[in-house]
Amino acid sequence: MNSIRPPAVAGTFYPGTSADLRSQLSTLLAATRTAEVRRPKALIAPHAGYIYSGPIAASAYARLAPHRAGYSRVVLLGPAHRVRLRGLALPAATTFATPLGEIILDRDAGEALRRLPQVCVSDEAHALEHALEVHLPFLQQVLENFSLVPLAVGAASVQEVAEVLDLVWGGDETLIVVSSDLSHYLPYAQARHIDEQTTRMILGLAPGLNHEQACGATPVNGLLYTAERRGLRPQMLDLRNSGDTAGDKKRVVGYASFAFYADGGEKSNERPAVPDTVDGKLLTSLARAAISGRFGLHFSVRDEAQFLQRPGATFVTLKLDGQLRGCIGSLSVHRNLIEDVRANACAAAFQDPRFKPLRFEELGSVRIEVSLLSTLQPMAFTDESDALSQLRPGIDGMVLEFGRHRGTFLPQVWENLPDRRSFLTELKRKAGLAPDFWDDGLRLARYTVAKWAEPATT
């Protein structure tokens, strides 16, 4: 017998009519352009109302557009918000509906999952649950024909979730989507700090998230555990919160999106933006030891760690009394990490042309920050407005090149230049170009960083 689970949050979390919904989805997806052609095996995306988290979710679903005919099944997991639940719940319904039409559930997958002791059937768990529903219109917009395996997740172990994922993992035809927001109702600055830590754990495939970090921590942890075993590598696509999109900054909810690829992510001779093996405290200690050595002060720092011998591109930033005191770095990989940090630390201290060389009496007060860069991603754009629309405030660093002119801003610069246009304008100035300069020959590339700083001195 066929039964339909009707939409529960159409008209509140997203538009309630087909025309309005398609229009909003088209706008959100068009604002998230990407040159990425790899095929994601899994996504993590948020589930708030589209006005708040829609742009961040769109950055994940835009990755599916080149492969819209390639997926025939979607396994969708999200936290159960309204019903206390032990394990994972399938619906008794055979079809899910949205204003864009109906989606048939994968009956064979459901029957196989019901044999697992941690899986039950509960229409109640699905009836009013928004965490799964808000993803369905995105999937209907970017994919062609697909069946659905929807799972509401309650209290479950990492291994129980992983066992479910293994059973329905399938091949290239199957997409795994995990629904989760990040921190909830914290002041803006505190939320940013916590969400950045959560992001590092996800990028490091560390399945130890709690529900203060992510409301969907249980399915996220299960995916991270499974991704590590199966050789997937994650890529962060967007990280913002409601204070960045449509809310005030007093009490915000965090959102992030990630894509997981089976091909290892970055090229084999390069590294992901935040390798899970990197010890950031060791990097800042190496930088301080290198600078101190120039003053005749020598102290030992553990430098035999394996990750230090891998290729890496870093920037070292010095701050004194909260003000920039020097910043030099590498935009591309050309030596191992330990050599790059040591060289850039000394260059930032003694060779930054904007500052006089660091003095011995400043050494004890200067604060050192090390940023580890991801691979540069060239940007494709039609004009300046298009380029600006692609920038992700607080996330992207940028390299600008035109002829002999070249300049870069680390993502940290967004703290002082939060507006996209001012960010690009000042980068032009830094590269020696006029603020209103634009030419079709101008090249832009963006990157992300993992950063570690010494504690502030008191």
Secondary-structure blueprint:
Layout: E1 4-5, H1 18-30, E2 40-45, H2 50-61, E3 73-79, E4 88-90, E5 95-98, E6 101-104, H3 107-113, E7 119-121, H4 123-127, H5 130-133, H6 135-142, E8 147-153, H7 158-168, E9 174-179, E10 184-186, H8 188-203, H9 217-230, E11 233-241, H10 242-245, E12 252-261, H11 280-293, E13 314-320, E14 323-329, H12 337-350, E15 367-373, E16 377-378, H13 384-390, E17 397-402, E18 405-409, H14 420-430, E19 443-447, E20 449-453
Helix pairs in contact: 7-9, 11-12
Report on this model:
It is a single chain. This protein has 458 residues and is α+β, with helices and mostly antiparallel strands. The protein has three domains: 4-261, Protocatechuate 4,5-dioxygenase, Chain B (3-Layer(aba) Sandwich), CATH 3.40.830; 280-372, 2-Layer Sandwich (Glycoprotein, Type 4 Pilin), CATH 3.30.700.20; 377-449, Hypothetical protein ph0010, domain 2 (Dna Ligase, domain 1). Helix content is 31%, strand content 24%. Strands 2, 3, 4, 7, 8, 9, 10, 11 and 12 form a nine-stranded mixed β-sheet that branches. The radius of gyration is 24 Å and the shape is globular.
